[in-house]
Amino acid sequence: GSSLLTGPEGLMAKERENLKRLKCLRRYRQRYGVEALLHRQLKERRMLATDSAAQQAHTTRSSQRCLAFVDDVRCSNQSLPMTRHCLTHICQDTNQTLFKLCQGSEEVPCNKPVPVSLSEDPCCPLHLRLPPQMYVPEQVLAVPEELEAAPTDLYLSAAELQPTESLPLEFSD
């Protein structure tokens, strides 16, 4: 900024004062001496901590595999966040309380893990018991036989309902 303000003819007194104020404002929040050294060290420590934490979180999440063994072979699925087991083996963790095994039915046993909800015995969608039907359809009323055998001459056809003559309309005052 100072090189732009200085010209071949030099600066006037007012311009020199403004330039001095501008330089002071630029340095106003700058740290000097011991304070600057400590601030720079703190920034470096923070950068190292955040970089290593982010890198460590990335490597641990990508390398976390389920700890369950199926037929002496380790499960290859990725574990759920904050756990050591995948969704199919989460019930092997004795400390977790978010999942329970589906009880199934007598005919079809089931051992799928299901999230615990408000019900006491959570079920998978296959074994979900629906509540009883709340809507009861109305019963059809029986029509008496005498109404069914009503004479048809009481009813007029569409042809009989049409007027045969066109009568002039008269309006009176």
From TrEMBL:
Keywords: Chromatin regulator, Isopeptide bond, Mitochondrion, Nucleus, Phosphoprotein, Ubl conjugation. One of its GO terms (biological process) is chromatin organization. Residues 72-127 form the KANL2-like probable zinc-finger domain. Pfam families: zf-C3HC3H_KANSL2. It is found in: Mitochondrion; Nucleus. It comes from the Eukaryota. One of its GO terms (cellular component) is NSL complex. Component of the NSL complex at least composed of KAT8/MOF, KANSL1, KANSL2, KANSL3, MCRS1, PHF20, OGT1/OGT, WDR5 and HCFC1. Non-catalytic component of the NSL histone acetyltransferase complex, a multiprotein complex that mediates histone H4 acetylation at 'Lys-5'- and 'Lys-8' (H4K5ac and H4K8ac) at transcription start sites and promotes transcription initiation. Required for NSL complex stability and for transcription of intraciliary transport genes in both ciliated and non-ciliated cells by regulating histone H4 acetylation at 'Lys-5'- and 'Lys-12' (H4K5ac and H4K12ac). This is necessary for cilium assembly in ciliated cells and for organization of the microtubule cytoskeleton in non-ciliated cells. This is KAT8 regulatory NSL complex subunit 2.
